[in-house]
Amino acid sequence: MTTDNHQNDSVLDQQSGERTIDESNSISDENNVDNKREDVNVTSPTKSVSCISQAENGVASRTDESTITGSATDAETGDDDDDDDDDDDEDEDDEDEPPLLKYTRISQLPKNFFQRDSISSCLFGDTFFAFGTHSGILHLTTCAFEPIKTIKCHRSSILCINTDGKYFATGSIDGTVIIGSMDDPQNITQYDFKRPINSVALHSNFQASRMFVSGGMAGDVVLSQRNWLGNRIDIVLNKKKKKKTRKDDLSSDMKGPIMGIYTMGDLILWMDDDGITFCDVPTRSQLLNIPFPSRIFNVQDVRPDLFRPHVHFLESDRVVIGWGSNIWLFKVSFTKDSNSIKSGDSNSQSNNMSHFNPTTN
């Protein structure tokens, strides 16, 4: 009877220990997952941009449920060992495991494309594919990877490629932008901005407007177009008032690099140290600015240029932006004349926007 009582006591201790582990796991999961919802609705005289939802990617620790088995003597003498094993299991589970994906090498490309050079950027369009190399060469192929033409565009690495379907634009670390036509190989124009170009975007109606936007290490978002004389006109869209708190303080005068530029009709959005900014092309006015979060992965004052933004256009009026540990969903709508700026919680969202539930891994 004594042995059975000891065994029953040990089993009860083990079960209570399991419940303790499960409760601590649920508490740690709740504390480590940090989800935010933010809604910003900005209305301009012609357009409005709404920030529907925001999710911050937190790292959640998770402890697998384990069952402790053994004899009564093992349970009595191995309490310390079980505690050490539980700590080791928690440390192992805290380490994020990369997802298991299947990769397939593209073998249809011509072998002579990258014998002496490697890809620095690429673009997969609806009608053609483009591959830029570190030596400044641009390879254009069909969607079946059949070569169309090869162009020596720049003197150094091609950092970005953009297209509107009829024209293509490339930006390079040598500070130049090349714009060419898919139909006419001889119709190629070069623009020199003297500083590395990280991103370039053609206007949605480039054939008629001859307008494009570029930005890079200089920190300026430049809207460029040609006048009726054929001269280039540049307009800086992100001008800042220079303010100095101290004579030896130069931080307020310095602009961070432009990390990405995209167009949505007559709207331009870009990412830099100030966050995500929407600008209206006809009025040259900024509609919305979402600051970059100051805290990422429990680290304070993280530089935005350490993270590359990822942008995906769900529809013609909806765009998803993933940057750092955050995901934003924006909807652009045309409204009547109004100069009001509204900011509210999720209750102020319209019915067709409240169903967005961002997920992070």
TrEMBL record:
Q: Which InterPro entries match?
A: Beta-prop_Vps41, Vps41/Vps8, WD40/YVTN_repeat-like_dom_sf, WD40_repeat_dom_sf, WD40_rpt
Report any one BP term from Gene Ontology. Answer: endosomal vesicle fusion
User: What is the superkingdom listed in this entry's lineage?
Assistant: Eukaryota
Which is a Gene Ontology cellular component entry for this protein?
A: late endosome
The protein's name = YDR080Wp-like protein
Q: Which segments of the protein form a coiled coil according to its record?
A: none
Region feature (Disordered): 1-100, 340-361
What high-level taxonomic lineage is stated for the organism? Eukaryota, Fungi, Dikarya, Ascomycota, Saccharomycotina
Per the record, where are the segments of Acidic residues compositional bias?
Answer: 76-98
Question: Any idea where the Vps41 beta-propeller domain is?
Answer: 101-344
Q: Where is the composition biased (Polar residues)?
A: 1-30, 41-56
Q: Which organism is it from?
A: Saccharomyces cerevisiae (strain AWRI1631) (Baker's yeast)
